[in-house]
Write a structure and sequence with these properties.
disordered N terminus, 4 domains, SH3 type barrels, 6-stranded antiparallel β-barrel, Muramoyl-pentapeptide Carboxypeptidase, domain 1, alpha+beta
């Protein structure tokens, strides 16, 4: 017996030495544990089932925050090891770090994005019910490390509902999903004026849901904020011409920039340039042309229709108004008044004079200084164009 035991030990030792000599790693209990894929339960408690369906017998109840070893995946179910029991947990109840970020949404008001995984940590932002977030990790089974509108922080797991799938299906898109199909939907909503450019992220957020709702209502579809086959067919149908009122205004939101008049602004909006002006407070647009000006742009409407739009804003007035000027693929925050005065290059446009457009840093002729009212409107336009 001792001889057999010695021979067995010698054989094992020789095998190990051969593997090491060949440069192959030797698997140990420690390295196997390190390689194991782990997941954590994100509900208060979940059922561990015998098979990958809700009709299977319940083998155990797994408390929220519990870590389990992930063995395999079967459709929408994970096969896991928990307390020496092998069973199945649905993927929407388990956070597996190796899958990367997961879509989620806030279940109720009162949630906070915090600077650390503790209720004592400072609040980065207050969250509202239905708001979309992107989850990166689960800390100690209790706190999600999440990204919300480019801000990062921690949200307690009880406030979040994890999407059943981190990748959106082209047949049905809803809040919490993410992926190329969501981004395609967001671009289509943007093209129709229902979503601003800043909200195109590939993650189905609360803003995306709101845009889907508005589109469904405009088309007379069942309005639930979920993009099912009927909604997707309608929004991708090129013969469907439905757009949001003042669609161009909403398409521009999120892309507006500040440009200093004396640091590129005057060259960008060069004399002779024909461009589009969008009034920030009403969303109305008209075409105009710069014909002169040194301290700022001296401009005129191009047609009588453009003059009618200007007059509809508040008549002809010296009041300053925040506007966006779009030219050569760029939209810049600016300010204008609607009062015709002095030079009148094109009398046939029905505008008896010209109006002035100011960018950041523009000056007035009277004292060669910035006009505080114009500059306030420039920044109002910039703020409105970034939201």
């Amino acid at each position: 017996m001792k001889l057999k035991t010695f021979a067995s030990k010698t054989a094992v030792l020789l095998l190990v030495l051969l593997l090491v000599a060949a440069g192959r790693p030797v698997a140990t209990a420690e390295t196997q544990a390190q390689e194991a894929e782990m997941g954590q339960v994100v509900a208060d408690k979940v059922n561990l089932r015998e098979g990958p369906n809700t009709d299977s017998d319940i083998l155990a109840e797994v408390p929220g925050g519990t870590a389990v070893e992930v063995l395999d995946k079967d459709g929408t179910w994970y096969r896991v090891l928990y307390n020496s029991i092998v069973g199945y947990i649905r993927q929407d109840y388990l956070f597996v770090n190796s899958t990367g970020s997961r879509g989620a949404y806030v279940k109720s008001d009162g949630a906070s994005l915090r600077g650390g995984p503790s209720t004592e940590s400072y609040v980065v932002a207050q969250l509202s019910a239905g708001q979309g977030v992107r989850v990166k990790a689960l800390i100690d089974g209790e706190w999600f490390y999440a990204v919300v509108n480019d801000q990062t922080g921690y949200v307690h797991r009880t406030f979040l509902e994890i999407s059943a799938s981190s990748t959106a299906s082209s047949g049905m898109l809803k809040q919490g999903m993410e992926g190329e199909e969501v981004e395609k939907l967001q671009n289509a909503l943007y093209d129709r004026g229902f979503l601003s450019k800043s909200n195109i992220s590939g993650a189905f957020s609360s803003e995306t849901r709101k845009a889907v709702l508005e589109f469904q209502q405009a088309c007379g579809l069942s309005a639930d904020g979920i993009a099912g086959p009927a909604t997707l067919n309608s929004i991708y149908d090129s013969s469907n011409k439905i757009e949001k009122d003042n669609a161009e205004f909403y398409r521009l939101k999120g892309s507006v920039v500040l440009l200093d008049w004396f640091e590129g602004g005057s060259d960008w909006l060069a004399k002779g340039a024909k461009f589009t002006v969008t009034d920030v407070r009403t969303g109305k647009s008209f075409r105009a042309r710069r014909f002169g000006g040194w301290y700022h742009a001296d401009c005129e409407p191009i047609t009588t229709d453009d003059t009618s739009v200007i007059k509809s804003l508040e008549g002809f007035s010296w009041n300053r108004r925040p506007i966006w000027v779009t030219y050569n693929g760029k939209t810049v925050a600016a300010s204008m008044h609607t009062m015709p005065h002095m030079a009148n290059p094109t009398p046939s446009n029905g505008f008896d004079g010209h109006f002035c457009i100011h960018l950041k840093g523009s000056l007035v002729h009277e004292n060669s200084k910035e006009c505080p009212r114009h500059q306030a409107c420039v920044y109002e336009a910039y703020s409105a164009g970034r939201s």
